[in-house]
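[agent] plan:
  1. take the single chain provided in the ticket
  2. run structure prediction with default settings
  3. attach structure tokens to the ticket
  4. add a short note for the reviewer (M.T.)
[agent] executing step 1
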Amino acid sequence: MALSWKKGKRADGEMSFLEHLEELRWHLIRSIIAIVVLMIVAFIFKNLIFDHIILAPKDHNFITARLLSRWFGIEINTKQLNLINIKMSGQLTTHIVVSLVAGLILAFPVVIWEFWKFFKPALHSNEAQYARGAVLASSLLFFAGVLFGYYLLAPLSIHFLSSYQISPDVVNQINVRSYIGTLTSICLATGLVFELPIVAFFLTRIGVITPAFMRKYRRHAIVVIFILAAIITPPDVFSQLLVSIPLLLLYEVSIFISWRVVKRKEQDHADFMKDDTSANTENATT
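[agent] step 2 finished; step 3 output follows
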């Protein structure tokens, strides 16, 4: 898919630079439309979004709190957490911001699909096939990360941060925007971190990393994973281990995916060389 600064299509049928920009613009427009539509849907279902999703992790009856109490005897969020709003338009702007974030999360597969359609003409047939699978895999991994952050990290973080006190004389009066910001940052962070296998796939395809490289620096990666877990979780060992274990598993899965990509590239190269040798032999015989 070559680019040209001249307007109009080239003689060989390839798109010009301006046509590429026009094509990209329409993909962006469709992505924005999907985000806006889903944002409006989230805005309409205010009670579902806030009462049953956003505010649920702070409740003692939330599924995570009940399971921790039943299985491990750990009680979290036992005290009622009352959120406050200190601005006249605070609840309205919070409603709009939450709807926008919900639209971004729900429209993630559409955005990935649109970008894949834009880059598809530049890919070979086998690369396009891999990329199509990567679109589905990246969407599933993103939602898995969001759910992981929502059901596991968010309740623990809310419990720790809302109950932590520097002095009994200081009372926590938590702003609703602060609460929602913490919740969304956790969910989005884990959603993006879960994209590690997809990143490893594409970096291996373009030759930036190899499975040998990932194995060599496994110890360094473990340190980085624990640092990352410490950043996105409350400063307690249980929460950090809860995040570190799936990230370590994802890193090992990434090594396996990188190995499969390298093997596939080697097989494609061997098949190409075999076909080329056969063609040369046939031409020499003729």
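[agent] step 4 note for reviewer: Residues 195-279 form one domain.
[agent] ticket updated
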